[in-house]
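Human:
Care to share another protein and its fold?

Assistant:
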Amino acid sequence: MYSYYCNCVNWPVHDVSSNGGLSDMIDNALDLTRTTLLKHVNRDQLKELEIGFGYSSHHTQGLTMAADWHISYHRSKLHGRTVYYFCYSGIEFVFTKD
């Protein structure tokens, strides 16, 4: 299970452009479906992020993150280790394996 690690806004500055760091992770990412992301990440942590963004928990109550076509989902490598992340409002939210 992959746990929420960090977003790019709060990323350690020294690791943004380092070899295998954040920029390389983004540049080498593969696009995924939300369904694939959900198979790998901690859903409770993802749900907390969704609530924080203001998404509804059910489509009958408003926009859900699942229905927001502006969100993209990805898999990549961070320093040689597989990570999953999604991009919301131009910000990457990264999940890593403990």
Summary: The helical segments are 22-27, 34-40, 43-53. The radius of gyration is 13 Å.
